[in-house]
Amino acid sequence: MRLRIPAALAVSVLSSSCASPPARTEARAAPGGQVELSPADADVWAFAIDVRARLAGGGGAAACFFDTNHGRTGGVRRDDTFTATLDVDEGANGVVATCRDGRGHEFRSAPAVYTGKLRDAPTARALATAAGRSIVLDGSTSQVAAHSHAALARFSWSVRRGLSRPAEALGDGSRLEVPQPTADGEYTYELRVTDTRGGSDGAAVGVDVEGGRAAIAGGNGATDAEWARAGVVYGVIPPLFGAPPLRAVREALPELAHLGVAALWLSPLFEAAEGDFGYAVTDSLRVRSDYGTLQDLRDLVGDAHGRGLRIVLDFVPNHTSDAHRYYRQAAALGARSHYYGFYDRTPAGTPTHYFDWTNLPNLNYRNPEVRSLVTAVGLDWIRDAGIDGYRVDAAWGLCRRAPSFLSRWTAEIARVAPRAFLLAEASARDPFYVQNGFTAAYDWTEELGHAAWEHVFDAPDGVARRLDDAVETTRRISGDRPPPLRFLNDNDTGARFITRHGLALTRVATIALLTLPGVPLLYSFDEGGAAFEPYDERAPSVRTPHPELVEFHRRLIELRRDVASLHGPGLEALYVGAHDEGYVYLRRAAASAEVAVVALNFGAGAAKLPLALPADIGAKERRLRSVFASEGARRDAASVELPPFGYEILVSD
Asked: Taking the CB of residue 528, how many other CB atoms lie within 10 A of it?
């Protein structure tokens, strides 16, 4: 049986009779120096650590030993250094190095404490299959703990319907057959595996029931955020909502739920360098103190779930801040720091970074502890706070340095959260991301960080042509897999769209955003036309300078959610103006003949736009009714006439 010794007791225990050297020798200070034990105190994201000791000064050491709470381990000599690999338990592990010189005198190092950060627990794996009117649940591929290898003792299953309902126990067993639910909806089947040492782990698999038929929805190796197809993501900068920020966002949930958005993407809320927006992370396992507490986040998530809203965190796995304690120790101690190898370096040992981000050193994914750390962070926020997914910052950076890791990371997230929304900050035109488990990626061009719509609205002439080209280019390359995240504003677009282009064009562009295929993003206070720049660290003086826009957004979000053709995969351009700014496109549903037609006028002059529907549309579906139109829009059987910056949405009657 292994004993864990608290850090405060580790040194005294190591000095006791069971770990001390023979009585005939006396530990003393090394002549001319001391016993150097490396690495320095550290967090260890593994179950073992390589340690080194040397006797500084004098004639060096003839032998060195490492005393731990597991006993004494002899070092292997390499020149004047002795090395060993020591077991690391979860929690504090005290270590003292003892070196013996050629005359038999022994000398001790100062103690080091290595804190084991990994849980020695089994890995639960949940699979499901639909068999007639039953669901077969299978946990037999679950694995024993990597360190202790303790046998699996219990498999417990439960089911949860929707976001906020409590789980209901189903029974025990590595394989369980249960009746298929009768009511339509989202069901999450959760497995809890416990081993003989009491270690436990959870996994889940989703099942969607619609029209009495069940379909597996993620968990069998991939996420399936089906809700994102019809939903709208809303970007939140917590401090702009008030103080303390997480409580202020929670207070805003009724308004956001009424707006109709499906998920809130919170800008980075981990501990970060003072004054930073949040991407200079100093501790990815702690809520930043100026935002609130872990309990505040849990309360926010619970309240959001009760209102049908999901919470997505901004995850930063590419780098840390140079103010992170890992980086600071590595900078101070060099190779004596356990964290030196946590950072990507040039052959000369200089930390790497992208662009001019010299304060954001890249993590080294060749190091297995970095991989373990980032995986643990991704799982912990889901387990501890119940969040619903991640926007993965600088995913393109990991694609360059660690592509195989990304696929393993998304699979681990899917194992515990089958409906997680995983957004890659990378171009949707690159097939890598959908092939490696992401739900969506950015509607960027092939040029890093440049949105496909970046220059669409720069000049008043040719907007319709440029927008159609941007949309069709992304569709031609990616086929909408992954679906592109489209936006007019985000954290990196600087001055808001309404500031750059005015209210009239904002309305028409917003309709395009919310009726084209992909995942639409609204950013903080877009619905009210607020004007600010995210990195200015200042809240807008007025959140809703255009209150009429709030209902405008709410109605569009409702239409997108409720009209199947507006969130289906089909898109056909019916008219792209060459001498006007008219743009007309057809949207088709995935499993219905019903269609929607969207007619937009991006110009300052009136435009008469043809409505020429494809021949394969049936007579019933050709009967269109207007569900959303600007004042002054008029229509006949063959065309729609729109005023300047006018619009109309038509759906099958």
From this structure: 18
